[in-house]
């Protein structure tokens, strides 16, 4: 016979096994998975948008079990509509809130990203402010050259260019199908060569 001696906590079960000599040839294996609350790996930042333009907020979290991420506005979950669209990625553990076209004061709000799993719930906020195009302050970032539609043969390299100016120098982010481009997860196919210039490698 096999005897079991155990103790249990809310999160982890620990069992001690005593096997008689006749069963010493058997070696059981165990897999222990610890629960973990959500932890943000990408957090949204406050943005100033131009009336008629677009704003995208990115949020992503890890945890065990894998959390679900969603957006709130004025305490209520944002449901995709013509103006506000939520695009999920990473099996729901990430979400992009895209707002277009921007209108003030309608869209000027503090938006909340919520990450939830069975262990806990975490949240982070970002504020959106909107100004009219004719009231842009000196040094406000602007795109001088945007990416152009290209047709390339398979196995060839496509290079997309984007140039922006402002004071201080603006940081350029790339999106594909409304989702943020992360060269580190593209297995070398996508590389950001210089500030604002991206090459797609096959």
From TrEMBL:
Organism: Oreochromis aureus (Israeli tilapia)
Record InterPro entries: Ig-like_dom, Ig-like_dom_sf, Ig-like_fold, Ig_I-set, Ig_sub, Ig_sub2
GO biological process, one term: dendrite self-avoidance
PROSITE patterns assigned: IG_LIKE
Molecular-function GO terms, alphabetical: cell-cell adhesion mediator activity
Keyword Ligase: no
Pfam families: I-set (PF07679)
Keywords: Immunoglobulin domain
GO CC, one annotated term: plasma membrane
Gene3D superfamilies linked: Immunoglobulins
Domain Ig-like: 38-125, 141-177
Keyword rRNA-binding appears in the UniProt entry: no
UniProt cross-references to PANTHER family, sorted A to Z: BASIGIN RELATED, ROUNDABOUT HOMOLOG 4
Protein name as catalogued: Ig-like domain-containing protein
């Amino acid at each position: 016979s096999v005897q079991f001696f155990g103790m249990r906590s809310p999160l982890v079960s620990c069992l001690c096994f005593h096997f008689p000599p006749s069963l010493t040839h058997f070696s059981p294996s165990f897999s222990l998975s610890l629960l973990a609350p959500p932890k943000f790996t990408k957090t949204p930042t406050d943005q100033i948008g131009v009336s008629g333009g677009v704003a995208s907020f990115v949020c992503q979290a890890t945890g065990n079990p894998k959390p679900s991420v969603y957006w709130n506005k004025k305490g209520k979950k944002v449901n995709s509509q013509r103006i506000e669209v939520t695009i999920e990625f990473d099996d729901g553990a990430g979400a992009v809130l895209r707002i277009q076209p921007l209108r003030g004061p309608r869209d000027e709000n503090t938006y909340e990203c919520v990450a939830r799993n069975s262990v806990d719930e975490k949240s982070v906020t970002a504020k959106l402010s909107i100004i009219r195009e004719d009231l842009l302050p000196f040094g406000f970032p602007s795109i001088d050259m945007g990416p152009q539609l290209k047709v390339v043969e398979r196995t060839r390299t496509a290079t997309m260019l984007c140039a922006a100016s402002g004071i201080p120098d603006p940081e350029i982010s790339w999106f594909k199908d409304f989702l943020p481009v992360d060269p580190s997860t593209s297995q070398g196919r996508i590389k950001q060569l210089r500030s604002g210039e991206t090459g797609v490698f096959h």
